[in-house]
Design goal:
Elements: E1 6-7, H1 11-22, H2 28-40, E2 44-53, E3 57-67, H3 69-77, H4 83-96, H5 98-113, H6 119-132
Antiparallel strand pairs: 1-3, 2-3
Helix pairs in contact: 3-4, 4-5
């Protein structure tokens, strides 16, 4: 709804949404097992949120779930358009890791050098075809 790559629904909300939209009624323990499998497979990151209260001590809040790049690629394989999210994630990775940006730029420059429409390359390709078909340009 708000174009965020994270969410912190309560377990009851997740269960009610699964029942409402997928007609799937499961227990809370099953939900936690499924989420652990997804987390262990690196499709989601789960972050426990704990608040310190001076009177009551530690208070648990709902868990934060964040989709990883691997999760976005899985959604893309299922036909969900997540191209903007993947691009934003890769930009963020480049911000925190300058070497990654340098590798991407080097790759783009190498691809720009090899342009199949340059006259020299077209002539070379045509000469190759010409030798095969006994035509020389």
């Amino acid at each position: 709804k708000y174009k965020k790559d994270y969410s912190y629904p309560a377990q009851e909300t997740a269960l009610s949404n699964m029942e409402k939209y997928q007609r799937l009624k499961i227990s809370r323990a099953t939900l936690n097992r499924w989420m652990r499998v997804i987390n262990d497979s690196k499709y989601l990151i789960r972050r426990r949120r704990i608040k310190r209260d001076p009177r009551y001590g530690l208070m648990f809040k709902s868990t934060l779930y964040k989709i990883t790049i691997k999760g976005y690629r899985l959604l893309q394989a299922f036909g969900v358009d997540v191209s903007k999210e993947i691009a934003a994630y890769e930009r963020w990775l480049e911000e925190i890791n300058p070497d990654r940006k340098e590798k991407r730029l080097k790759k783009e420059r190498a691809a720009a050098k090899y342009n199949p429409k340059t006259p020299e390359l077209v002539k070379k390709i045509l000469n190759g075809f010409g030798k095969t078909f006994s035509l020389v340009f």
